[in-house]
Structures are given as C-alpha cells and as structure tokens.
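quick one: 3-(4-hydroxy-phenyl)pyruvic acid bound model?
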Amino acid sequence: MKITIFGVGLIGGSLALCFKGKPGITVVGHSIFPEEVQKYIDRHVVDIATTSMEEAASDADFIFLCVPVGKLASYLQQLSQMTLKEGCIITDVGSTKASIAACAKQTDLQNVTFIGGHPMAGSERSGVEAASSILFENAYYVLTPEENVSEEAYTRLADLLQHTRAQIVRVDPKQHDDIVGAISHLPHLIAVALVNQVRQYNENNTLYQSLAAGGFRDITRIANSDPYIWRDILLNNKDVLLKLLQDWNGQVESFIDILKREDGEGIVQEFSQAGAFRSQLPERRKGMITSLYDVYINVPDTPGIIGRIATELGNHELNLSNLQIIESREDVPGVLRLSFRNEKDWDRAQQLLPTLGFTAYV
Ligand SMILES: NC(=O)C1=CN([C@@H]2O[C@H](COP(=O)(O)OP(=O)(O)OC[C@H]3O[C@@H](n4cnc5c(N)ncnc54)[C@H](O)[C@@H]3O)[C@@H](O)[C@H]2O)C=CC1
Ligand SMILES: O=C(O)C(=O)Cc1ccc(O)cc1
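yep, here:
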C-alpha cells in the first residue's frame, strides 16, 4: 500500500511516522522545497521523498494533504488533472473544513474519493523536526465525509487511521468550523492579542517580561504558533471568527461593567461558572503529546535530578520513550512526565518510582 504525504511538517511528519514501518506500507513524502526532501530522508520519516508531484501521486492508495490551509484547493485542483489509482482516497488535515469540502464538491475527481479530515492534536511547534509518532494518541480525529462518500471508502480511511491511535469522529464541515473556531481559532487569536498588549507595555518597562509567570505562560503558549499556518486558518474561517469576536467583545464589556460596579459577587460567579465547565473538559485531550503509558511525578528543583531518574530507570532496564518537563501543572498530576513504550514497563515504573521516593501518578 502506498501512502503519499504532501507537506511533511509537524502533522504530515507525525502521520508518516504512524504509518512508516507498518507491514505492507510504503510512505512517500512530497515537498516543493528540495532541501526539505533531503531532511525527510535524513530523519527517516518517510521511505521515499520527492519533489515530483506526479511521482508522489501516481499509484498512491491514500493521499494526505498536509500543507497550509491556503494551499489545499490548489493541490486538489492539480491532483484532479492527474491520472490517479482507481479508488484512491485523498484526505487533508487542514484546521478548517467547510471551504475544502466546497472545493472538493466542485472538483471533478473522477475515480477517486475526497474525505476531509482534521486531527485535533498538534502544538505550537512546526516542521518535520517537531513530528512525533505519538502526537495523535488519545486525541480526536475529525472526518467530514460528504453524502456522496461511500461507507466502504470512509471505513477504509478510518481503518488506516487506527495507526494514529486517535479516536475517529464524524462531523459536518460547517459545524466543525463553528466549533473549532470557538475552541481553537479564537483562543489563538486572543493569545496573540494578549501577548502583543503586554509586549507593548514591556517596551517601556522590561519588568513586564521578567515577572510574566505561570498564568501568562499557560494561556499564551499557542501565541508561539507558526504565523503563516495561522494566517491561512484565520482568513479561511473569517466569517465564523468575526461572529466569535463580537461575542468576545460582549464578554469583555461584561467584565468592564462588573469592575465599574465593583460587583464582587459577579466576579465570583464568572470564575465559578468557568471553573465548573473547565473541570468537566476531558483531560489530556487538548493537543498535548500523550502516550497510553505515561507516569507523572513531582520532582524537587535540584541539579541533576532528571539525570538521576533516567539513570535509575536505565539501571532497571526501563526504556523511556519520552520525557517531558511540564510547565503548566493544571491538567496533570505532576511536573515530570515519563512515557514508556509498553504496559509492562509502565507497570514496573509505577512499582519502582515509589521506592526511589517519588509518588507516581497515572
Ligand atoms: N499545527 C498544528 O498543531 C495543527 C495543524 N493542522 C493543519 O495541518 C496543516 C499543516 O500544518 P503543520 O504541520 O502544523 O505545519 P508545518 O509548517 O509543520 O508543515 C507544513 C508543511 O507544508 C509545507 N508548505 C509550507 N508552505 C507551503 C507552500 N506554500 N506550498 C507547499 N507546501 C508548503 C511545508 O514545507 C511543510 O512540509 C495545516 O493545514 C494546519 O492547518 C492540523 C492540526 C494541528
Ligand atoms: O497547541 C495546541 O494546543 C493546539 O491547539 C494545536 C492545534 C493547532 C491547530 C489545530 O487545528 C489543532 C490543534
């Protein structure tokens, strides 16, 4: 089976890593940039890499479009001009779904099927360097098939995506854009606006930067996201965002009013309602890189502590697949996340860590 990925960046590269090495699968990566193609090979993310669109697309069983949202229509258009393998499924990973669905409807794709997709996982990082085979684990992966898509084709794609260990959900494209606009696009916009507001204050007094602590960092991590990827997403979902920003203005106005009236009860109510809703959010589903076999521990801030833990695990032949220092402790029960490759190592680590003086949380 040949799987072709156009644009092997954070998302395309992570998909490639999910598929590569699986029995019977060859992963082909395409980039318009020759220097990127070399990087795909050097990093062993794909089996074959090319700058030729024809070479990449011909004979492919699945084609994943993982380029910026603003480029998706042009890729679909170019593919419609080529002879593709009968039954080939083209899908995308774009963060907006209505416009690419409309584009696919208007494009004569002959003997191939388009099914829109959006893995609801990622990060503020970008490029193949940030790709990870566990990026999608435990996350939702939205598919937005139109009515003309056969159950057989949908199931074939959903089955392939089992390799990501994500949970597949079917959503209408327009509904997707409304919801994702509110829970992802608007927060990115607000994070950027907030950082820029503080950046301007900081120009006259760098203490702003020095004192910026946990809360500021937590809610602004996503302001570090790739400007061009986000330019495309926000422009593509413009109508939804304009409506959301009006509602946001309403929230701001309401806080202005509460403060002017020194309405302490109003503030308590806002925090209480927000806290109650937020506590119900599914944990570790929001784009964090998670694995099924994670252990969280609290560690004191002393030199060499991480080395000591890694050494102890190594002495007991426990292989770490990932180690992460978590800046935000809100959603997880510890500050150091240790990921293991399998259940056996995970179990053994949970036995070992307490004997080293660490309480292990899972
Ligand atoms: N960043 C994230 O967390 C998530 C992003 N997405 C979507 O995934 C897609 C890819 O985003 P990322 O992987 O984050 O970005 P990325 O920057 O890591 O990768 C983008 C890829 O597209 C290629 N590319 C860039 N400009 C291009 C152009 N003008 N023509 C052709 N190729 C070009 C790059 O060479 C790179 O391989 C976007 O459509 C984005 O909306 C979906 C879920 C999460
Ligand atoms: O970094 C994060 O928390 C994200 O929100 C990542 C993300 C970015 C874009 C998407 O379309 C989906 C997920």
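The chain is about 45% helix and 15% strand.
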